[in-house]
Amino acid sequence: MLFLPPAGADQTIVRPLVSHVPGMRLGVMRMPGRGVRHAEPAPRDLADLVGSLADAVRLLPGPPPVIVGHSVGGLFGYALALELERRGRSLAASAPPRPPR
Questions:
Q1: Contact call for residues 62 and 2 (beta carbons, < 8 A)
Q2: What is the pLDDT of residue 99?
Q3: pLDDT at 91
Q4: Residue 47: Cβ within 10 Å count
Q5: CA–CA dist 78, 74 (Å, integer)
Q6: Could you tell me the mean pLDDT of each successive run of 10 residues in the chain, 101 residues long?
Q7: What is the pLDDT of residue 92?
Q8: Which of 2, 63, 70, 80 makes the best surface tag, with the fewest CB within 10 Å?
Q9: Domains annotated on the chain, with CATH
């Protein structure tokens, strides 16, 4: 499971979840400008963020991750799922409905 945190949060938000998913590999995308990456500049736009997230997911070992996002992390998760699908990667995703255009 790959978790995308809500705005303003970092990887520590998932600590309470760990005990509820025993045996499952749980990863958290560490966003630029947050937590241990606080000194990195924020992405210029959603496409830049999603591209870098998709590059990172491609390097993960094992089967495709289930993507779970909370709040704006759900929006990022949805955009990441679309990008991974565009790149030919199969996956499972959990995100809010597509935002209106």
A1: no
A2: 73
A3: 66
A4: 11
A5: 6
A6: 80 78 80 80 88 89 83 88 87 65 78
A7: 62
A8: 63
A9: 2-94 (3.40.50.1820)
Pick from 73, 71, 72: nearest CA to 28: 73
What values do phi and psi take at 70, rounded to 5?
-120, 135
Q: What pLDDT shows up at residue 50? A: 92
Confidence (pLDDT) at 54: 92
Contacting residues for 71 by C-beta, under 8 A, at least 6 apart: 6, 7
79 contacts 57 by C-beta, under 8 angstroms: no
With H, G, I as helix, E, B as strand and everything else as coil, classify residue 90: coil
Scanning 4-71, the segments in alpha helix (DSSP H) are 15-18, 46-58
DSSP 29: -
Q: What are phi and psi of 10, to 5 degrees?
A: -130, -165
Q: Could you tell me the CA-to-CA distances from 11 to 4, 28, 97 in Å, in that order?
A: 9, 6, 24
Candidates 11, 19, 4; CA nearest to 72 is: 4
